[in-house]
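Section 5.1 Outputs to date
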Amino acid sequence: MPEQPFPPEGVIAGGGAMDLSATEAGTVRRPPAAPDGAGEPAPPAAGPAATADRPRSLWSDAWRDLRRNPVFLASALVILFLAVISVWPSLIASGSPLKCDLARAQQGSAPGHPFGFDGQGCDVYTRTVYGARTSVVVGVCATLGVALLGSVLGALAGFFGGWWDGVLSRITDVFFAIPVVLGGLVLLSVVTANSVWPVVGFIVLLGWPQISRIARGSVITVQQNDYVQAARALGASPARLLLRHIAPNAVAPVIVVATIALGTYIALEATLSYLGVGLKPPSVSWGIDISAASPYVRTAPHALLWPSGALAVTVLAFIMLGDAVRDALDPKLR
C-alpha cells in the first residue's frame, strides 16, 4: 500500500480550516469597533431598567402605591391642614375663642365672622379653628400611647407564649367587656383636672387590648418564617430576634389599625366632652361646642353645623388614610 503524502507544512501551521476557525473565534471575541474619534465604548448606563432589577421592600412598594392613590393624597392634605392650624391657629383665625358678646348671640354670618355666633355670642369660626388643636392632640397622644403599650405587651405574649400569653389574653378579655362610653362616664366623672391628659389616659387604658391582639397575632405569624428560624439556629438572642428580625416585619398591621383608630379616638373625645365628662369649659373642644349648640338647633343651626362638620371631616380623613395604608401594606392585594 503506498504511503500517503504528508500535507505541506504551511497548511498545518497557517492555512486552511484551522486558520478560518481562529479568525472566526477572534471575530466573536473582539468587541465591536467604536466609531472614529469616539474612543473606548461606553459602559452600559445605569437607568430605570437597571434600577428595576433591584428587589424592592414592602415599605418602598407601599410608598409607591400611596403616592398614586388619590384617597391617600386627599386625606393627607386634610390632615396636614389640621396639623398646621392646630399648631398655628392664628394663621386663619385672628380673634380669641373665649371672647363672647351676648348681644350677638345666635346671630348668623357677618363680616369677619363667616360662621356666625353661638348661644353665648362666641364666634363659631374662631372656636371651630381652635377646637382642632384639642382633637389632634388627644388623637395623636392617645394613639401613640395605645400603640406603644399594646405593641409591647402583645409582642412579648406572642414571642414567649406560655403562662404570659395566657394571663395577658384573660386580661384583654376583661377590658374588652367594658363598654367604652360607660367606662368613661364612670372613670372621668371623678376627675377634676380640666385638661386633655385624663381623657388621653382613659383612651390608652381601654384601647391597648385591641392593638395587643393585633401585635400578638402578627408576631406569632412572623416568627414561624425561615429567616427567624435560621437566626435562632445561629444563636441569636431573644432580644435580637424580637427587635431585629420579628418587630420590623410584624409592625405593619399595628400601623394600619392605629391609623384607623386615631379618628375613632377623636370622635370618642368629642363624645365624652359632649356628655360633660371629658373636657369642660373654658376649654375649647368640638364636643363642648356641639353640646352647647344642641338646645339652639332650631333657632341657630349654624352653631351646631360647623363644629359637627369639622369633626366629621377630621374623623373621615383619618379613616380614609388608614384604609389607604392598609391597602398599600397588604401583600394579598399585590
